[in-house]
Amino acid sequence: MALLRWSDQADLFRPFEEMEREMDRLRREMDRLFAGFRGIRPLRMGVFPLLNVSEDKDNLYVRAELPGIQASDLDISVEGDTLTLRGERKSHEAEENVSYHRREREFGRFRRSLTLPTRIDVDKVEAVFQNGILKITLPKAEEVRPKQIAVKTV
């Protein structure tokens, strides 16, 4: 077994200490970089429509934000464990000789699919569209609903 002097052992850990300092510096730089973006919501989320999925003991609920869309332009389907929303947001702007300073509203066809977390009874699915919010009620299949088991005493 070779003996190392104390000063040689200190050099053994120096690369790790330098790496730790460099990681700290990198973390501080990343924190500083992202601190400038806090509170700023990106203009394009990349996902449309935005939606919430919730559930109670009997149903799943999907609520989707669809402003500027007519109910007649929506197509909702359930296939297996996948819910698909399709539609089109039509442009209402037919103005000629107009130049835009800013044009953030998007138009055109969209499609969003999501995997449902449980089996549902497809025949009882309902959808209501009101004030730009689409609410889809998806009743859970009978076999996945919680069942109360009575305890018998002997």
UniProtKB/TrEMBL annotation:
It comes from the Bacteria. Residues 42-154 form the SHSP domain. InterPro entries: A-crystallin/Hsp20_dom, HSP20-like_chaperone, Small_HSP. Gene3D superfamilies: 2.60.40.790. Belongs to the small heat shock protein (HSP20) family. This is HSP20 family protein.
